Amino acid sequence: MSLTFLPVVPWLVLLLVAVVAGVLVWAPPGRDEPAQPTTARVRRSGLVVLLLVAATRPGLPGGQVDLRTSDLDVFLVMDTTVSMNAEDWQGGRTRFEGAKQDAEAIAARLPGAHYSLITFDHEAVTRLPLTSDAQALGTALDILTLETSSYSRGSSTTVAGPDVAAALQREKDAHPERARVVFYLGDGEQTADGALEPFAVDPALVGGGAVLGYGTAAGGRMRQTDQGADGYVDDPSTGEPALSRLDESNLQAIARQLKVPYLHRTAADGAAGIVARVRLDDSARSAASDERSVAGRVELYWVALLGLAGLAAWEAAATLAGVWTTRRRTGSRSGTEQQPPVTRPANAGGRR
After folding, report:
1. C-alpha angle 102/152/182, rounded to 5°?
2. Residues with Cβ < 8 Å from 329, sequence gap 6 or more?
3. pLDDT value, residue 343
4. CB–CB of 82/31 below 8 Å?
5. What is the pLDDT of residue 296?
6. Phi, psi of 298 (to 5 degrees)
7. Superfamily of domain 70-289
8. Three-class DSSP category at 129
């Protein structure tokens, strides 16, 4: 069992640090400088040596480490319009809750992938650039909110297309070896004026994914999303609570353009099987299922850090003791110098 090293900086840098530190610690004092005690020099040399040892990251081989690797980029495109606040998912819950739950389930089923979160209402916004930090995705989903209902200006279900296309092309150019999948999560409701624009994404850039639809054809009432507001969004033409209805035809059109399946999501379906039911091309499937074990390594740098902490505490105590001793000497000397000289009367010792 041989000792191995994984230095945090190049060996030449460590050598230069050792030489400079040795010169500073053991250089002879100047003409007017007091000589350092040998104990202090040895202690400071020990600090330098232990720091350098820790920086080399010594270790021993041992054990196996299970790795889940994934050369996969996952783009989550999520609808954040007010209609996603309609309460027709899982018996009174909102569509938005269902979409966020599915997004978390997708991330859990694809460990090790890189994730990006793009949302859209009247415009598209990249909430999270591609990252391998699943916790960052979880945080982004936790704090994600819907557009404010009082400022809603209508939305297009395909408004995020150009942003998604640009992100896919950028990643293909930067990392052509990685596979890219797209999950679109929305209700398909088109409230913007004009005809529905195509979802302008080249399907050749997409290695798989799915379009996930939320809501019902019967529709659901939408709660207001203004801060502090209660109640439901009203239909201005009738004054009654407005209904938002799932539009599967728009979602199916997006799925055809991306060449991925469309899945109508309900609570009864459960979230665990989403990835198993979507299309993944060969490269995406391989990237999503790459699990392997590699030889482990027992790190030993912490032993040097423990010794370093002990010497650092000794150095701090010695420094404080030296400061205290110096102050006492200075104070004692000052008190002696401030005592007035003893004078004797002029006729002291004389005869009366």
Report:
1. 30
2. none
3. 59
4. no
5. 55
6. -95, 110
7. von Willebrand factor, type A domain (3.40.50.410)
8. strand
Which two structure tokens, joined as six digits, stand for 254?
């997006």
> Greater confidence, 242 or 348?
242
Q: What is the pLDDT of residue 271?
A: 62
CA atoms within 13 A on the CB side of 183: 27
Cα separation, 11 vs 257, whole angstroms: 54
Distance CA 155, CA 144 (A): 18
- pLDDT for the residue numbered 67: 42
- The helix/strand/coil state of 125 is strand
What are the pLDDT digits (tens) for 14-62? 899 999 988 888 887 766 666 778 888 888 899 999 999 999 988 887 6
Nearest alpha carbon to residue 285 among 342, 352, 208: 208
Letter for the amino acid at 170? R
Hey, what are 227's tokens?
């801060």
Which structure tokens are listed for 131?
A: 């990252």
- Name the 3-class secondary structure at 106: helix
The CATH 3.40.50.410 portion of the chain extends over 70-289
Q: How confident is the model at residue 288 (pLDDT cuts 50, 70, 90)?
A: low
In the chain, at which residue ranges do the beta strands (DSSP E only) sit? Answer: 4-5, 58-68, 72-79, 114-120, 124-131, 179-186, 208-213, 220-221, 243-244, 262-264, 279-280, 291-299
Which long-range CB contacts under 8 A does 111-115 form with residues at least 24 apart?
A: 111/68, 111/70, 112/67, 112/68, 112/69, 112/70, 112/72, 112/290, 113/70, 113/72, 113/73, 113/74, 113/287, 113/288, 114/70, 114/72, 114/73, 114/74, 114/178, 115/74, 115/76
Neighbours of 42 (CB within 10 A): 12
Q: Could you report the per-residue pLDDT of 178-211, keeping only the tens digit for each?
A: 999 999 999 999 988 777 789 989 999 999 899 9
Which of 189, 246, 240 has its CA nearest to residue 219?
Answer: 246
State percent of the chain over pLDDT 90.
41
Whole-angstrom Cα distance, residue 107 to residue 69?
A: 13
Beta-bridge partners for 89: 93
Write down the mean pLDDT value for the chain. 83
The amino acid that residue 125 corresponds to is: V
